[in-house]
TrEMBL record:
Swiss-Prot/TrEMBL cofactor(s): FAD
Name of this chain's protein: Ferredoxin reductase family protein
Annotated TM spans: 28-50, 70-89, 110-130, 142-167, 179-200, 212-232
Protein's membrane topology: Multi-pass membrane protein
Intracellular or extracellular location(s): Membrane
Alphabetized Gene3D superfamilies for the sequence: Nucleotide-binding domain of ferredoxin-NADP reductase (FNR) module, Translation factors
Coiled-coil spans in chain: none
Domain FAD-binding FR-type residues, every copy: 237-337
Matches recorded under InterPro entries: FAD-bd_FR_type (IPR017927), Fe3_Rdtase_TM_dom (IPR013130), FNR_nucleotide-bd (IPR039261), MRET (IPR050415), Riboflavin_synthase-like_b-brl (IPR017938)
Key words, A-Z: 2Fe-2S, FAD, Flavoprotein, Iron, Iron-sulfur, Membrane, Metal-binding, Oxidoreductase, Transmembrane, Transmembrane helix
């Protein structure tokens, strides 16, 4: 399983550069958190200056109206985060990382929705109580008599559609391509829901400063979407002339795609990062797919590997050389800059092995210092086998293939033949110096959750655990 070649690869990140990279990431992180807290506090200030505290203490219909305003402001602020987190803004991508962004996107979406429901209910009951009307009659009056409310109603219905299709049970029943298309309606829903606040919201109509701030904030969010989701990807892809160079089968259910271009080192991609890819091969090209680099990036070639699981990946298998490619990225913080020690333990399931192999190609380590653990239901489905064998031969990587049906009684992330082991015991057996290793984990979200739980049980500290998830 081991080899003697231990030469340092040119793509690796030296230790001093890792320290500087971690310090830079911390600065990005503080900036991202500062933006979130700053906008949240501004919402509280707008509500307080608008008499929110006094009205709430006073009770009665005014208290309901005041709380309705507060929940509406908080919901709109979370919608703002939804837009910014989808916009690939560098301050969030570099400061929080894709895994944290994915969690925040999902959590803020659901919280925003329930605060929106509370906002509608509180205002309906507050106004109905003051006017001595029934709640349904008051709701009807809101929709038809107040400026912007028809637009807000349409926007709310679109947001309900996005929330319902984002529930895990519904999400599992939808193809990725269908879910992605439906999810884009969130942009339209936000655009329709926001204007009524500036036209009818007492917190903004009574304060020109608050109105200018709110319009400016949403204008900046729209500009972020335009710049980082449309303009820069188009410009970057055209500059580098990205085209498919070759497609081949990888195992029974996988494909490898090689993309060529000019001066790809200027993309500043690192092993372990991912791009959002769009292949201009016909209908459906507009739907982006996040794929990690499956090899250390070169000056003229990028490599990805994927499982053929949906329409998008099946289409990729039929692509012809010369197909134009659009990319967004690179994104992700699961890179060599996260390392704190010498030893490496890589745990990958299915297509999750791709970024781990890119890291193993790009990082520096001695023979025997890096261990790769792969997990597949069938050995024939394993991806990147020739590349794994080359790393064993040339770099001394130790490889354990945990193939087979899932264990029903032991750790859920290993095959049935290891059911007698606890997850923590098995990890320590695979890597006796586990506590001295940086551990990188990539695979389906439930599998990663189980692995990370056992790694923590084995005593691995959070500073040595590195993982990212694309699942929203």
């Amino acid at each position: 399983m081991t080899a003697t070649a231990t030469s340092r690869p040119a793509a690796s990140i030296p230790v001093p550069q890792r320290s500087r990279a971690r310090a830079t990431q911390q600065r990005w992180r503080f900036t991202a958190i500062g933006v979130i807290w700053g906008t949240s506090l501004s919402i509280a200030v707008i509500w307080v200056l608008g008499g929110g505290v006094q009205a709430t203490i006073g009770g009665g219909p005014d208290a309901l109206d005041s709380l309705g305003r507060l929940t509406g402001l908080a919901s709109a602020n979370l919608l703002l985060y939804q837009v910014l987190l989808m916009a690939r803004v560098p301050v969030f991508e570099r400061g929080l990382g894709r895994d944290a962004i994915t969690r925040l996107h999902r959590q803020s979406g659901f919280w925003s929705f329930w605060l929106l429901v509370a906002h509608i209910a509180l205002l309906v009951f507050g106004y109905a109580q003051a006017a001595r009307l029934g709640p349904l009659e008051q709701l009807w009056g809101f929709v038809w008599a107040y400026p912007g409310m028809l637009l807000a109603t349409a926007g709310t219905l679109l947001l309900v559609l996005v929330v319902v299709t984002s529930l895990r049970r519904a999400r599992r029943k939808l193809r990725y391509e269908s879910w992605h298309l439906l999810h884009l309606y969130a942009y339209l829903g936000v655009g329709l829901a926001i204007p009524h606040m500036l036209w009818t919201g007492a917190d903004f109509t009574a304060s020109p400063i608050a109105s200018v701030y709110w319009w400016g904030l949403w204008g900046a969010a729209a500009a972020c979407v335009l710049v980082w989701r449309i303009v820069l990807p188009l410009r970057r892809s055209a500059r580098h002339g990205l085209r498919v160079a070759g497609v081949r089968a990888d195992g029974d259910r996988g494909i490898e795609v090689r993309v060529r271009g000019r001066a790809l080192d200027r993309l500043h991609a690192l092993p372990g990062q991912f791009f959002v890819w769009r292949f201009l091969d016909g209908p459906g090209w507009s739907r982006g797919h996040p794929f990690s680099l499956a090899a250390a990036p070169g000056q003229d070639e990028l490599v990805i590997a994927a499982r053929t699981a949906g329409d998008g990946t099946r289409r990729m298998a039929a692509m012809r050389p010369g197909t134009r490619v659009l990319v967004e990225g690179p994104y992700g913080t699961m890179t060599g800059a996260a390392r704190t020690g010498r030893g490496l333990l890589m745990l990958g399931a299915g297509a999750g092995v791709a970024p781990l192999l890119a890291l193993l190609e790009g990082e520096a380590y001695a023979s025997g210092e890096a261990t790769l653990v792969t997990r597949n239901h069938l050995a024939s489905e394993a991806l990147r086998i020739p590349e794994i064998q080359r790393l064993q031969r040339e770099r001394g990587v130790v490889h354990f293939a945990l193939d087979g049906e899932r264990s029903q009684h032991g750790p859920s992330w290993v095959p049935a033949q290891y059911a007698a082991w606890s997850g923590a015991e098995l990890l320590c057996h695979l890597r006796p110096d586990l506590l001295d290793c940086d551990v990188f984990v990539c695979g389906p979200a439930p599998w990663m959750t189980a692995v990370l739980r056992d790694l923590r049980a084995a005593g691995v500290g959070p500073e040595r655990l590195h993982h990212e998830s694309f699942t929203i």
